[in-house]
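Attaching the record inline, Q. Sequence:
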Amino acid sequence: MADEPNAQRAKKLYIETVGCQMNVLDSELVVARLRDDGYELTDDIDQADAILYNTCSVRQHAEDKIYSALGRIKNLKREKPDLAIGVLGCMAQKDQGAILKRAPHVDVVIGPGQLGRVPELLARAKAEEKPQLAVSLARTAGGRDRVTASFESYDADREPTVRPSKFQAFLRVMMGCDKFCTYCIVPSVRGPEQSRSPDAIVAEARLLALQGVKEITLVGQTVNSYKYKTPDGRTTRLSDLLARLHEIEGVVRIKFITSFPNDMTDDLLQAVRDLPKVSRYIHVPAQSGCDEVLKRMKRLYTVALYDDMLARIRETIPGASVSSDFIVGFCGETDESFEKTARLLERSRFKNSFVFKYSPRAGTKADGLFADDVPEDAKRRRNHILLDLQAAISLEDNRGFVGREVDVLVEGLSQSTTRKPGWDGPDQLVGRTACDRIVVFPGPAGLAGETARVRIDQASAVTLFGGLAQEAAERPA
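Structure, as predicted:
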């Protein structure tokens, strides 16, 4: 049937997201809002009516990537004057009007506390034919309540088509951060720490379950700092929230990231131990193994406290896996300081670690207080040392799974081992254990979203490999 003469073509939206899990969730919520405004997603940037970049400011590389992308689409804007271009998120909050000076073809610059206004501001930019800037107040621009109010919450609509897996979803439990680590820009761009109502969180989790989500990951800058007080004086902690979410039918696994060492309370660890749906996995950054460096970072804990926290995790939750973050080459880090970090990583037996080279970030306290005095070649060498040490630990621990059977929540087809040119083998599926180890095994694609029993045959530093346990049992010896 031919299209109706006056039928409107759906507007096409292209969105690119860089950065953390919070940004992935933000993009899903933005797309949900724009879907209601008549947009549909496209992965072809040339066909887009609106191009949005949801940005990160934690590292310089992430910002450079966005400015490079903006440069590449400058000609596209010239060819399509009605094309709307937007810069969203942390970089928008940090750089604000500087983005418009560097990339004047941008139509909207919208900080993370204003993302609910994206449809409105895109329409206004077109109607007024001038760029629109919407950011929240700076931390120094007024009292806490006034600044907090400028970071609006917009957790409402959810858009399944944006998620990498329809069986997995992020769920925000809190916004902002009050830790003020000297190297970190997040408190400036994400605003004051504020916990969401547990009733709102549970209602959103029920919606996700109705959409077919099996695994929910609770996200917050320091998620285990979650604490919500009602007007009558009652307090809901993260452990209490986990207990409520555990009762939701359809949800089979719950995770939470990222945690802060000082807030790893015993009640939370006991909840992880006692609630079967909660993953036995905790991500809790150490950043350094040297007290002097931790003090300059303003991390608010000592190495002894971190060691004690790890001991409590392992004592309370046998078999739990822990991962960490490290920054190498922070201001004043000596060879002796770095050696202490290497020893912390070595004795902690992390499942995996994310290791980053320090780079100064304008607007952070470290940028004004300390000299970036560790040479680049030393940063690079230390980075490799930690990565190699972690790889050896991960390989040794993963080999301990060989011969064992594990329950795997199947995420879908493994992109690294199947669907490649020349591949004529069976479908390879990927999933994770309750302690968050990646497992790849052959099996029918229909298992996606289900829990499978897998016997582990091989292991690398990052992945376990095996076969369905029932099939393995039926194979002749």
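The longest helix spans residues 376-399. Confidence is low (pLDDT under 50) at residues 1-7.

More tomorrow.
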